[in-house]
């Protein structure tokens, strides 16, 4: 924390008293006033955007906060693997934006964001243009398909990745439900860096569980040299629970998609199946590119590792999955999207109160299922290191489950209730 005595006195004079900072769990501003009503616009109402809008109003109710999303409800990716395999209802992960709008006084606008005029401080949407003093952008991820090698729009429609939850979650769930006994399944893992490092291996585990119960066979092809996250724990599950139905092939480079044969051609041979789930490589969400936040030839949005202000435009902040990994070791997770949102909300409120931003320190706790009722976890602490000007893992601050257990499954449920409440309710 870096507050000068002068700036603190200025803040007290302005009526702002910030009682807690890092970690953001106790952020409170008692009695806040800013000279003129400041207009904050938040684009994208997922894990980053919804948290930012809610916490801005909690920190300073006098701010005019508008949240814009193309849908009236966000569908959570966390727990969506469970929905695909019939373990949880879609309603549990459907989170209407109306809830934080009504509870905290956030203005919600359902619209497609189409452009940005940073000089005029104006965002363009399908429902008209809107001015801002500060803009927070949380666009999530986009898919980096190799269109020239057969992964065209027709393929993309027929073979859902289901890595952005919503319509494709239902599409894949229905495909799974319609599989006959004895079918073959194929899952392609994306190349790191991608959204939710352990997520594809959780999907592989639940797919393998389905295969085992339905006399099916599953092949998993992975471009990475091995399991990207929680490796030994997933490996144990693959071997001990699914050894007879699952074949895992690492270091597999996809070359093209053969539409006529419905086959994925790789350097390790050609693969087809009754059900293919191809999760492509990833980049920042399309909105980040549309708004000019990703420089030519790059995949992610460069930002300050302290304030998350865009390197391209002043008073524009990028949070969540779209952040360039060049400035941070944190994974692309809902927890980190939620935390970067709180840090930016606090930075903005502090700036209006004449206070310096705080230095980022954050934790990521992450649960995954290895079977329908057994979970595993990893928890890591990150902090800003001024020597390298990046957010890095704090020495030794890393803890991983010893083995899969029913207790971790129960903890996963508590974690989920907690993060969904903190973000969307
Ligand atoms: C299967 C799976 C499991 C996961 N499990 C976990 C987990 O257990 N724990 C965890 O921490 N993380 C998990 N994640 C990762 C987590 O979902 C993401 O890291 C998180 O959603 C990132 O938040 P975000 O705000 O960056 O993007 P999102 O949450 O995707 O939000 C982006 C929002 O922007 C909106 N939007 C985009 N473009 C436009 C536009 N042009 N106009 C209007 N609106 C737009 C979208 O509708 C969306 O609501 C999982 C992900 C997957 C795929």
Spatial order of the strands forming the largest sheet: 7-4-3-11-21
User: Average pLDDT value?
Assistant: 93
| Classification by helices and strands | alpha/beta
In the CATH hierarchy, what is the superfamily of the largest domain?
FAD/NAD(P)-binding domain
Bound molecules: flavin-adenine dinucleotide
Largest sheet data: 5 strands, parallel
Report the uncertain regions: 1-31
**Assigned CATH class of the largest domain:** Alpha Beta
Strand content: 25-35%
Number of spatially distinct domains: 2
Rounded to the nearest angstrom, the distance between the terminal CA atoms is: 29 Å
What's the shape? globular
Q: What's the gyration radius in Å? A: 22 Å
Instruction: List how many beta strands DSSP finds.
Output: 24
Helix content estimate: 25-40%
CATH topology of the largest domain: FAD/NAD(P)-binding domain
CATH architecture of the largest domain: 3-Layer(bba) Sandwich
Put simply, the count of helices is 11
In words, what does this structure look like?
- The chain has helices at residues 5-14, 47-59, 80-84, 98-104, 153-158, 167-177, 199-213, 231-242, 286-290, 334-352, 406-424, and strands at residues 17-18, 29-30, 39-43, 64-69, 73-75, 94-96, 107-110, 113-117, 122-125, 128-131, 134-137, 141-143, 184-188, 217-221, 246-249, 254-258, 263-266, 269-271, 275-278, 282-284, 316-318, 361-371, 374-385, 390-400.
- It is of the alpha/beta class.
- The chain has 2 domains: 5-142 and 284-359, FAD/NAD(P)-binding domain (3-Layer(bba) Sandwich), CATH 3.50.50; 146-280, FAD/NAD(P)-binding domain (3-Layer(bba) Sandwich).
- The chain has a 5-stranded parallel β-sheet, with helices on one face. The chain has a 4-stranded parallel β-sheet with strand order 15-14-13-19.
- Helix 7 packs parallel to helix 8.
């Amino acid at each position: 924390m870096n507050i000068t005595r002068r700036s603190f006195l200025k803040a007290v004079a302005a009526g702002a008293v910030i009682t807690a900072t890092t970690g953001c769990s106790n952020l409170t501003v008692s009695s806040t006033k800013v000279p003129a009503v400041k207009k904050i616009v938040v684009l994208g109402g997922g894990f980053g955007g919804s948290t930012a809008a809610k916490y801005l109003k909690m920190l300073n109710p006098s701010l005019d906060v508008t949240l814009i999303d193309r849908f009236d409800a966000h569908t959570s990716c966390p727990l969506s693997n469970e929905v695909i395999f019939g373990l949880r209802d879609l309603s549990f992960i459907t989170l209407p934006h109306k809830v934080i709008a009504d509870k905290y006084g956030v203005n919600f606008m359902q619209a497609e964001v189409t452009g940005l005029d940073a000089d005029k401080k104006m965002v363009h949407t399908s429902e008209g243009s809107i001015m801002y003093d500060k803009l927070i952008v949380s666009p999530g991820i986009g898919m980096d398909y190799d269109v020239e090698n057969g992964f065209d729009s027709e393929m993309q429609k027929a073979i859902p990745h289901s890595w952005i939850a919503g319509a494709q979650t239902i599409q894949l769930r229905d495909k799974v439900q319609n599989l006959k006994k004895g079918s073959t399944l194929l899952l392609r893992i994306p190349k790191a860096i991608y959204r939710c490092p352990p997520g594809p291996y959780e999907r592989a585990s639940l797919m393998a569980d389905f295969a085992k119960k339905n006399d099916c066979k599953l092949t998993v092809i992975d471009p990475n040299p091995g399991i990207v996250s929680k490796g030994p724990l997933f490996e144990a599950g693959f071997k001990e629970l699914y050894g007879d139905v699952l074949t895992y092939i690492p270091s597999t480079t996809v070359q093209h998609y053969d539409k006529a044969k419905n086959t994925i051609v790789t350097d390790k041979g050609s693969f087809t199946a009754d059900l293919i789930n191809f999760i492509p490589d990833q980049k920042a969400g399309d909105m980040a590119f549309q708004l000019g936040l990703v420089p030519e030839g790059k995949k992610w949005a460069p930002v300050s590792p302290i304030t998350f202000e865009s390197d391209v435009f002043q008073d524009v902040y990028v949070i969540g999955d779209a952040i360039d990994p060049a400035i941070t070791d944190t994974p692309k997770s809902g927890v980190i999207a939620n935390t970067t949102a709180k840090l930016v909300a606090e930075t903005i409120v502090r700036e209006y109160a004449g206070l310096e931003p705080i230095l980022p320190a954050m934790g990521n706790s992450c649960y995954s299922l290895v079977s329908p009722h057994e979970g595993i976890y990893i928890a890591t602490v990150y902090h800003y290191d001024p020597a390298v000007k990046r957010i890095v893992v704090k020495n030794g601050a890393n803890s991983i489950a010893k083995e899969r257990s029913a207790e971790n499954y129960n903890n996963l449920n508590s974690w989920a209730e907690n993060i969904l409440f903190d973000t969307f309710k």
